[in-house]
Amino acid sequence: MEKGTKENPWKLKTPPGTSDYEMYRDVKDGMDVIVCVVGKTTLLYDARALNDLQQMLKKHGDWMELGSADEQKPAKEGTVEAWGRSETNPVGGWYGLKKGLRGRFGMYIPPLMEELGLAEITHEAKGNKMKAN
Which among 49, 68, 105, 129 is least buried, having the fewest CB atoms inside 10 angstroms? Predict the structure, then answer.
């Protein structure tokens, strides 16, 4: 069975390895999305994030801090989280699609990219980073 479907989701851990969650691809309102299920909470991300983030990291050429933050909190400048909500990224803003739950891009997308072989991430207690493969 193909991995990354609702029936067979990717089973992932946050970068520090402290929490389990699942992700799968789907289509919502005609848009390719990545569904992220963390406990009872469901987040949605624009599926273009995978390719766009890998391209940005290749241009960046080095490790970049993840800097995960909730939507209501500002993202640390120069982090993956800040890029995932920046007006200068390819979608012109948030890759997170569910208002109120658009943050945590730097927490949940990098492990999926590592699983797919698109990037490498560190797995420290704090201050994790990623770079493109």
Answer: 129
Buried b or exposed e, range 37-47, using 16+ CB within 10 angstroms? ebeeeebbbbb
In contact, 78 and 66? CB cutoff 8 Å: no
Show the tokens assigned to 28: 């919502």
With contact defined as beta carbons under 8 Å apart, do 66 and 19 qualify? no
In the sheet that holds 119-121, the strands lie side by side as: 64-65, 129-132, 119-121
**Cα–Cα dist 26/133, whole Å:** 25
pLDDT at 32: 97
* Number of CB atoms found within 10 A of residue 10's CB: 18
Q: What's the whole-model pTM score?
A: 0.95
In the predicted structure, residue 48 carries a pLDDT above the cut 90: yes
* pLDDT in the model for residue 1: 74
Nearest one of 97, 98, 101, 64 to 81, comparing CA atoms: 64
Is the pLDDT at 22 greater than 80, yes or no?
A: yes
